[in-house]
Design goal:
By secondary structure, the protein is of the alpha/beta class. The chain has three domains: 5-123, P-loop containing nucleotide triphosphate hydrolases (Rossmann fold, 3-Layer(aba) Sandwich), CATH 3.40.50; 129-235 and 249-265, no CATH class; 291-379, no CATH class. Helices cover 42% and strands 19% of the residues. The chain has a nine-stranded mixed β-sheet, with helices on both faces. It is globular.
C-alpha cells in the first residue's frame, strides 16, 4: 500500500474542523486505499448487504461506534445516505466519519440534503506533483501518458483494456445507479468526443449530431459528467467588456490518460507535451485552489489566456502554460493586460526550476514552476 501523506494530512486537518468529511473522486482514483491507510479507523463497505442492513438503524449503528473514526465507503449505495450523515453530524459529533463516493454530494437524488455547514469536502483528483514523489516515479511524461489513476500509472504495461473496463464500470455503477440514464451509446460517445477534443471551446450543438441526441440532452449529459468529476467545465473570465468572449466554456477531460486513450496515441510526440501540460496544470490548480475561481480568457480578436485565477477580493492572475520558457510570445498576456492592467501575469513552465521575471515593454511577467504557480495563487 502506497501512503499518500499529502491527502492523509488533508483528511486529518478536515477532521479537526468537522466530524464529517466527504471524499469524492472518480473510480480507481484511490479513495478506498487512501481511506484504509488512515490510522485507527474502522472500515465499512456500503456495497456489502450487512453494512447496509446495519445502517438501516443509524442511531443503533453509531451508538456501537462512539468516539471512533469510521469509513463509510461508497455511501451512495445506502437508501438514504444524507440522512445517515445528518444524524451522525447532529447527534454523534464525537464520531469522525469519512464518507466516500464517485460524485459530488448533491449529484444524485439520493442526497436530498447536501449537509451544508456540517461537512468538509475533499476532492481526490488524479495524481499531482505531491503524488509523483510519493509513488517513487518522478517522470512527468509517464504521468502525462498513463494518466493519474494510480493502478494505471503503476501498471507494468500500458493498460489499454483497463481504460475500456473503467468506462463500462463508470456507466454501470455510477451513471445508471445514480442518474438512471438509459441510452449508453450517446452518453459514452459524448464522453469519447469530449476527451478527444479536450480543452476546446464547448458548443453543445456540435456534439448533437454525432451523439444522435438533442442539444438539450448534450447539455444535460455534460452536467452529469461534471457532477461525476469526469469533465471539467472552465468558464470564460470577463467583466462584460465589449471585446471579450462571455458565454462559451471550455471542457477538459478529467485525466490525461483518458485523453491519450481516446485520441488513440501510442506514444507522445514533442508537440503533445504542451497540450497535456496544460491539462496537468489545471489538475494541480484544482487540487490547491477553488474550482469556481478558475477561468480562461479570450477576446474577439482571438487572443487567449490559458487560465485566469481570480481570488475573491484581489486582482486576477493570468496564467499561460508552456512546456518550455524558450521562445515565449507574450501577445496574449499583453492583450489581457490592456483590459486588466492591475493583474499579475504568470507563465508556468516545466523547465523553470527557479522563478524569474522578464519585461516585455512595460509588462512584467513571472516565469515559474508548477509549485511556484501554486504559491502565487495562494499568496496573491
Amino acid at each position: 500500500m502506497k501512503l499518500r501523506p499529502f491527502w492523509v494530512n488533508k483528511i486529518e486537518d478536515a477532521w479537526r474542523k468537522k466530524s464529517i468529511v466527504w471524499l469524492s473522486g472518480v473510480r480507481r482514483s484511490g479513495k478506498t486505499t487512501l481511506a484504509k491507510s488512515l490510522a485507527n479507523v474502522d472500515y465499512f463497505d456500503c456495497e456489502l448487504p450487512r453494512t447496509r442492513q446495519a445502517l438501516d438503524d443509524p442511531e443503533g449503528f453509531f451508538k456501537q461506534n462512539l468516539k471512533k473514526r469510521i469509513i463509510l465507503d461508497e455511501i451512495h449505495r445506502l437508501g438514504n445516505p444524507s440522512e445517515v450523515l445528518k444524524i451522525a453530524a447532529d447527534h454523534f459529533p464525537d464520531i469522525k466519519i469519512l464518507a466516500t463516493g464517485s460524485s459530488t454530494l448533491g449529484a444524485s437524488k439520493k442526497f436530498r440534503d447536501t449537509l451544508t455547514d456540517r461537512k468538509i469536502n475533499i476532492w481526490l483528483l488524479p495524481m499531482g506533483e505531491e503524488d509523483l514523489h510519493t509513488f517513487g516515479e518522478q517522470k512527468l511524461l509517464h504521468r502525462l501518458f498513463r494518466g493519474g489513476l494510480p493502478p494505471y500509472f503503476l501498471a507494468e504495461h500500458y493498460p489499454e483494456n483497463e481504460f475500456q473496463d473503467w468506462l463500462d464500470s463508470f456507466w454501470a455503477k455510477d451513471i445508471q445507479e445514480l442518474f438512471k440514464l438509459e441510452k449508453k451509446y450517446p452518453f459514452q460517445k459524448l464522453f469519447e468526443l469530449l476527451h478527444q477534443q479536450s480543452g476546446g471551446i464547448f458548443e453543445a450543438s456540435s456534439f448533437a449530431a454525432p451523439c444522435e441526441i438533442s442539444r438539450t440532452t448534450v447539455a444535460n449529459y455534460l452536467s452529469v459528467l461534471e457532477a461525476t468529476l469526469t469533465a471539467y467545465v472552465v468558464r470564460p473570465f470577463n467583466t462584460n467588456k465589449a471585446a471579450e468572449i462571455i458565454s462559451a466554456p471550455k471542457v477538459f477531460g478529467f485525466d490525461t490518460g483518458f485523453v491519450v486513450f481516446h485520441k488513440g496515441w501510442e506514444s507522445l510526440r514533442r508537440e503533445d507535451y504542451g497540450y497535456l501540460w496544460e491539462h496537468y496544470v489545471l489538475n494541480q490548480l484544482l487540487i490547491h485552489t477553488e474550482k469556481r475561481r478558475i477561468y480562461y480568457w479570450r477576446d474577439k480578436q482571438k487572443h487567449e489566456v490559458d487560465f485566469v485565477y481570480k481570488p475573491r477580493t484581489k486582482s486576477p492572475i493570468a496564467i499561460e502554460c508552456k512546456w518550455s520558457a524558450k521562445n515565449f510570445i507574450p501577445k496574449n498576456l499583453i492583450a489581457f493586460s490592456k483590459l486588466y492592467p492591475h493583474a499579475k501575469y504568470v507563465v508556468v513552465c516545466n523547465d523553470c526550476e527557479k522563478s524569474f521575471l522578464r519585461k516585455y515593454n512595460n509588462l512584467e511577467i513571472e516565469f515559474t514552476s508548477l509549485s511556484g504557480l501554486i504559491k502565487v495563487c495562494q499568496t496573491n
